[in-house]
Amino acid sequence: MRWKTLVILTVFLAPGAVMLGAVVSEAAVPDAAAAAASPASTAASTEAHPAAVPIAAAADTPQSDSGPLDIRGAWKPETYRLKSGPVHEVTGLISFTEKDWSVLFFIVTDEGPRRGSGEGGTYTLEGDKLTFRHLYNLSGGHAVDGFEASGLSMRVRPADTEDAPAEPCTITIEEDLLTIFFPSGNQMTFRHSSR
Q1: Nearest to 61 by CA among 72, 69, 52
Q2: Which of 142, 141, 135, 138 has its CA nearest to residue 153?
Q3: Is 127 left (phi over 0), alpha (psi -120 to 50) or beta?
Q4: Residue 22: its pLDDT value, please?
Q5: Distance CA 156, CA 34 (A)
Q6: Least CB-packed of 47, 90, 136, 139 within 10 Å?
């Protein structure tokens, strides 16, 4: 008697999942039963293919409309919306590596760049909760709607410092648009530039 192995392919579609099944003879899938029974098979396939995420781990991974949230890469800022109402056009770049971030942005009016900020440090992302740890800051500029003029400010903290300010934010990603909701009530949108 030949054993048959049930192979299940799962395709995740928002908001639910569609499951497709097929019965394949064991002869067509050598060592399928042994591989399915071995916990090492999942680890080995993840090791060989780092992008592969075991199903159990995928359940704990933050999701957006198109899958797990991934902010790594470069994003171009588009708007800076203040809690008090004004919306400013901004330009520059924010970049995320696996654990580090840096941003350089300018508020731009018809008169040109009016104020700007260069910041950086490390970050954590858990679900939709993005927490910036601020190690570097350079900022200043002219008065614009919602901001008074400010002189040049510079701050550098060692990477191992324990008193670096943490800024817990919430994020959303819709297609190639990242929105960061800051604890101040302000928010910025960024368009994906490159990975």
Answers
A1: 69
A2: 138
A3: left
A4: 38
A5: 55
A6: 47
Of how many residues is the chain composed?
A: 195
| Domains located in the chain, CATH noted | 4-60 (no CATH), 73-194 (2.40.128.280)
Burial 46-73 (b: 16+ CB within 10 A, else e): eeeeeeeeeeeeeeeeeebeeeebebee
Q: What is the pLDDT of residue 18?
A: 36
**C-alpha to C-alpha distance for 119 and 105, rounded to whole angstroms:** 9
pLDDT at 135 over 80: yes
Can you spell out the DSSP letters for 103-115?
A: EEEEEEETTEEEE
What is the spatial distance between Cα 191 and Cα 90, in angstroms, rounded to a whole number?
12
Q: Per residue in 139-149, pLDDT tens? A: 999 999 999 99
The CA distances from residue 50 to 36, 56, 66, 74, 179, in Å, are 19, 15, 19, 21, 28
